[in-house]
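Cross-posting from the modeling subforum.

Setting up a comparison between two proteins and wanted a second pair of eyes on the formatting. Protein 1 (sequence, then C-alpha cells):
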Amino acid sequence: MTDSDPTLLDAAHAALSADPGNDALRLRFYERLADGEMFLLLEREAAGEVLEPRIFPLESGPVVLVFDREDRLAAFSAGGAPYAALPGRVIAGFLKGQGIGLGVNLGVAPSEILLPAEAMDWLAGALDGGPEEAVARPEEFLRPEAPGALVAALDAKFARAGGLAAAALLAGVRWQDGRQGHLLAFLDARPGAEAALARAAREALVFSGVETGHLDVIFLATGDAALAPLVRVALRFDLPAPEQPKAATAPLAPGRDPAMPPKLRW
C-alpha cells in the first residue's frame, strides 16, 4: 500500500470496517464515494468525449477500477495509465444496470473495497430523482427537532456547496393544511443553483439514514417577509464563500466539465 495522508474515503471506510453492521456508517461511506472525485482507469486514452473504461473479468463478475488519488492509480498501474477524473456519482450512474461492479483503491490503500454491481445499482438509484414541486403556505415556524444524523449530513453537504447560497435555515414548520414537518430555506441562492441545492438537501436526507424523514425546501432572499420569524427559531448553516476561478491554461480533460459529461464505450 502507498504511504499517503488519509483521505475522506479512507476515514469513512475505516469507520465502517470497525463497525460493519452500522447502517449510518455504511451510508456515509457511499456518500463519500458519490461526492468525491474518482480516477477511473481506462483501456486507452480518451477519444474526444468518449471514454472506454478498462474492465476486469473477475470470478465474482466484471468490475472497473477507481482510485481516490491520482498517485494511487499510478501505484496500481506501476506508472502511467490512461484515466478520467469523474465524480463518483457520475461513475455510479454509468454503471447502473450494466452488471458491472466497482473496485475502489484495490491494493494501494486501506480503503480498498470491491463493490458488486448490485451496490452500484443501489447507489445510482439513491442519487436519482429530484424534488417534487408543491404549493403550500406556512402557518408557523418552530424550533427544529431534526435527528442529529440529518443535521450532520446537511452540514457536510453544505461544506461542499460554496457559492451556491449565502446560508441555509432549518426549522420546524406547521403548514396551513395541517401538515407538520421540517423546512430548509436557502437564503440568497445564486441564480440557477436552486436545483443543485434542492438535490443536495435530498441526498443529505437519503444518506442520513432517516427512513421516514421529509424535508421541504424553499428559497428566500434578504428582505423577504418570511425571513424574520424564520430566523428567530431556525438552525443556521453558513455556506462557504465561492472559490475564486483560476485562469484556464488548457482545455478541461474529459469528465472534468460537469456541463458536458463524457460518453462511455463498453
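Protein 2 (same layout):
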Amino acid sequence: MEDDSAEFGDLRPLQGEAPGSHRVPNLWHLRQATRAGRLIMARVALDLLGGDGAPEVVADAVAALDLDALDIDLVLVGPPALAIDLLAVRGINVAEQPRLTVLSATTAVPMAGDPLSYVRSHPEVSVMVAADSVSSGEVDAWVSVGHSGAAVAAAVLSCGRVAGMSRPALAVVLPATFGPVVLVDVGASPEATANVLTQFAMAGWCYATALGIHDPAVGLLNIGSEAGKGDALRLAADTLMQGRLPGLGVRYAGSVEGHDVASGARAQVIVTDGFTGNVLLKGIEGAVGWAAQQMALAYGDPKPARTVVAGTATGDFAAGMLLGVNGVTVIGHGAGSPHEIVACVRLAARAANTDLIGLTQRTFAALLEQVK
C-alpha cells in the first residue's frame, strides 16, 4: 500500500509523539467487551460550546434528551458553571441527574484562523477535551456541531488514525429511493489519491454495515458508468477497487453517477474526494429546500413538505460520521436544531453500540494483509 502520510502531514502527531495507535488504551477495548455483554450502555460526550446557536441550542438539546429511554449516559463538555446555569433555567438540576455529568472545558475554537494550530496549542478547548475523553476510554463517542475542521483535527490528534487509513473521511447517510446511501467523503479530505479513495470505500462499507445495511455495494462517483469514463484519478481508483475490494468480500458496483446517489439501487456506499462530495452534498441540500418550497406553493400548505424535509435531518441522516479514526466522532451541522443535535447523540451511541471502530480496525487489518 502506498504511503499517503506526506499528503496528510497537517494532522500528523506533534514532535516526539508516536503514531496515533498508542492513543487507543486497553480501557477502550474493555468497554467494548463489556458492552458486548450488555453490562454498560453508551456514554456520549457532547460539546456544549459548538454550533451557531451554542451554548443555548445545545442546552435545549440536553433538555430534550430522554437519557433513560435511550440508555445513554451524557457527558456535557464545557464550562461547568455555565452548563449548570443553562440547564437550571431549563428545569434540570445536574446534581440530581445520575446519567448527566459535566466535563470542564474553557473555550471553543474560533471560526477564524487555523483550527489545527488552535487545538494543538489549547488543550482545554472543548473539542480537544471531548476527543480526549474518547481516547482515554472515559466515554464511547463524542459529538460536536461546532467548527468541523477543529473537530476533525481534534479527533485525529487525540484518537489517532486507524492503521492503514491515510486520511480521515466524513460520511453522511442520505435518504434514497431504494434505501439509504452512505456518501463518503463530504469534506474531511478535499484531495485524494486512488489509494485514499479505496480506503474511503472500505471505511464507508464498514459504516454502512454497522448501520445494518446488508451486504452494501460500493460505487465510485464518476461522470459516467461506462468503462473508461472519468479523469485520471477516477480511472486509477476504479482499477484499484476492482482489484482489492472483492478479495475483502466487498461488492464493487463500478462507477456510478450523480443520480445514483438519490436512487440507492446500484450502490449503497458511494465514494468520492472530499471536495466533490462537499459540493454534491450542498447541491442536494439546496435542491431539497427548493423542492419543499415549490410543493408548499403548489399545494398552499408548507407543513407536509416541511415534515418530509425535517425527517431527513434526524436519525441516521442527522450528521456526518468521521471515519478512519480510533474513536466514534459525530460532526453535526453548525445550524442544527435541538432536535437534530439529539439525533446526533443517538447516532453516536448507535455507532458505539454496533462497534463501528472495531469493525473498521479489523477490516483495515485484512486490507493491510492483502496488500503486503
